[in-house]
Design brief:
Helix 6 links the parallel strand 7 and strand 8. The longest helix has 23 residues. The strands form two sheets. Strands 2-1-6-7-8 form a five-stranded parallel beta sheet, with helices on both faces. A three-stranded antiparallel beta sheet has the order 3-4-5. It has seven helices and eight strands. It is α/β, with parallel strands linked by helices and 212 residues long.
Length: 212
Amino acid sequence: MIFKNRGEAGRRLSQALEEYRGRRPLVLAVPRGGVVVAAPIVAALAGELDLIIPRKVGIPGNPELAAAAVMPDGTVIYNTKLMEALQIKPADLQRLIWREIDEIKRRMEVYRGGAVMPDISGRVVIVVDDGIATGLTMEAALGAVRKEKPGILVLAVPVAPPETAARLRGLVDDLICLATPEPFYAVGQFYEDFGEVSDEEVKEIYSKYRPV
């Protein structure tokens, strides 16, 4: 399955999420690309939009090799197999973790200003991204949301590898993933247009659909 762009992926997901229409779902999008996917979902389901920003933590000296993922509340998911193979301890990552937490807070301020996060407790919460590869950062995001005791926690993504989708399914009440192709090299291979999304576009979509 190939998606024309993120907007089309969001429209397809909205059809698969139809059962949540009328239940005032809160859609938590992962910037930047996930926000574009989330926009048609929020519109179709008459929901509300907000943001959730997990961050990858690379190993010392190689930021692209993910050893952990973190949320601003301090929720950390470790890539234990990689850390054991490289003989890295959690303490070795602490400085990098705090740096990523600071970056999450900076981005939340840029995108949301001083807006207060909505109450998640008891609500239908749909976490959306434009695709998932390893799933490490999404695990951190879902863990942070679960702490807030949503009534129903849904993960909705256009595409993910089969093994990643299977692992994340156990962390949510409902998983909507339109495609689980193999081989899977990168999320972008399943889009005709996977161009970079600007901060301005994120802010524009957020201001249109944010909770009031």
